[in-house]
Amino acid sequence: MVRSGSGPEIQADVLIAGGGLVGGTLACGLAMGGLSVIVVDAQDPADGLDAAFDGRASAIALSSQRVLEGLGLWSSMEKASAAIKEIRVTDGDSLFFLHYDRRDVGAEAFGYMVENRVIRTALASRFTDLDNLTLLAPARIDALERNPGDVRATLADGRTIKARLVIGAEGRKSPTREQAGISITNWSYRQAGIVCTVAHEFSHDNVAHERFLPAGPFAILPLPDNRSSIVWTEREELAPELMALDDDAFLAELEERFGDFLGRLEVVGPRWAYPLSLQFAERAVDHRLVLAGDASHAMHPIAGQGLNMGLRDVAVLAEVLTDARRLGLDPGAGTVLESYERWRRFDNTLMLAMTDLLSRLFSNDVIPVRLARDLGLAAVNRMPPLKKVFMEHAMGLAGDLPRLMRGERL
Ligand SMILES: Cc1cc2nc3c(=O)[nH]c(=O)nc-3n(C[C@H](O)[C@H](O)[C@H](O)COP(=O)(O)OP(=O)(O)OC[C@H]3O[C@@H](n4cnc5c(N)ncnc54)[C@H](O)[C@@H]3O)c2cc1C
Q: Is ligand 1 within 6 A of the CB of residue 31?
């Protein structure tokens, strides 16, 4: 249900600030778990449905796809997604490489590529199906008060909201996190992620490629209809020059890195450049407050894990809060929120550390480092048990999985 216009105080169990990929999915999970939810987003989701809004596509691991399926979101995205059946990792022009094949783990796919605007479209449509979900957009929280027994928010247009828990899911610059005084550890990689979509002559055969070039990783990720999504990591100072090139010159630079294995290339739609940094909130819970997604942890896209980690937050939080509701507990109670923090903290720390290490290891051309990583790639490729562990991580199947990620009902 979408409600707009001013009126009396709106009440719900949970208030979610930020209805993007993480906040929106979480809203669906909580509503399906029987909680009443209000989502406040600065942008109307209907504005985000064309390619001009967000050029990114996301690699959704198998476990994340199960979350989307369990929340009734996948059926409307499935046709617009491409399965990732093989992953090829190469280091520049080195002969050493790593090859993952879904048949080695007996899976249909490692995961799926979906354009972010397709996920947003699915969310906007699912919001309208769920009676206990109210979207207020475009809107912003102007003032937030966390009292012993409730949370009260006043929107910029004067409307007021009363809830028992507030969830900050507004991405990296989360005002909810800032207002709670939760500090962050962050550093810049001095790199930009240039993102665009290319159409190519030949089929990609559902293979995802990651090439480690001197400036950083260059990923070619399969999309439907002979198209691929490019995530091209470049030095911070070079990115504006590349972004300013005319179409032909940009294509020439792209072709130099892409190669000719998929035939003729054409850049379709706009290009985007995202500054790359790591960010980790000192804690993800506070009094009647929780952080989820990039508001809590944001990482280098080298392993395509940012959204996947956010969807893990969603699956865990939906499970913890739904179970609390079934037991008649207050969703904002400290003990309930602590179980979310305990479950997610280690996993998020590990993933941030891993993506940080990978980005440092693979974004330089120092000969001994290059030799060591090439030997590492070749060694993993020749050790089936170790390779299997890496493949399970790529599919998001490692660790203590919440019910939705195991393909079970919430
Ligand atoms: C180049 C690149 C490639 C990536 N590729 C992948 C990938 O392949 N796989 C993967 O798993 N991850 C990937 N990621 C990471 C992924 O995009 C993010 O982790 C994900 O978008 C985080 O979602 P979120 O909902 O937490 O935040 P966001 O996507 O930033 O959404 C925040 C939402 O909050 C709203 N908002 C903002 N401010 C306010 C406010 N003050 N009040 C109310 N609402 C507000 C916004 O309108 C938006 O809807 C990539 C990232 C980059 C930069």
A: no
Overall domain count for the chain? 1
Cα–Cα distance, 409 to 315 (Å, whole number): 11
Instruction: Please give the Cα distance from 102 to 92 (Å, whole number).
Output: 24
Residue numbers of the domain that contains 64: 10-80+116-186+278-363
* Cβ of 92 below 6 Å from ligand 1: no
Kindly state if the Cβ of 40 falls inside 6 Å of ligand 1.
yes
Tell if the pTM clears 0.90, that is, is over it. Answer: yes
Check residue 372 and give its pLDDT: 74
pLDDT at residue number 388? 79
Residue 70 amino acid letter: G
**Residue 221 falls within a domain, yes or no?**
no
pLDDT tens profile 26-63: 999 999 999 999 999 999 877 756 655 678 999 999 99
Token pair for 33: 């778990």
Atom 4 of ligand 1, nearest CA residue: 301
Beta bridge mates, 200: 265
326 alpha carbon to ligand 1 midpoint, in Å?
Answer: 31
CA distance 51 to 269: 7
Q: How far is CA 322 from CA 14, 35, 72, 264, 283, in A?
A: 12, 7, 17, 51, 22
Say yes or no: CB of residue 41 within 6 Å of ligand 1.
yes
Distance (Å, rounded) from C-alpha 135 to C-alpha 17?
A: 10
Q: Take atom 37 of ligand 1 and give the residue whose Cα is closest.
A: 170
Q: Does a structural domain hold residue 21?
A: yes
User: Considering the domain boundaries, does residue 103 fall inside one?
Assistant: no
CATH code, domain with 159: 3.50.50.60
Q: What is the pLDDT of residues 223-251, one digit of tens each?
A: 999 999 999 999 999 999 999 999 999 99
User: Tens digit of pLDDT for each residue in 182-227?
Assistant: 999 999 999 999 999 999 999 999 999 999 888 889 999 999 999 9
Angle formed by the axes of helices 334-362 and 306-326, to 10°? 170
What tokens does 112 get? 């799926």
Residue 26 within a domain: yes
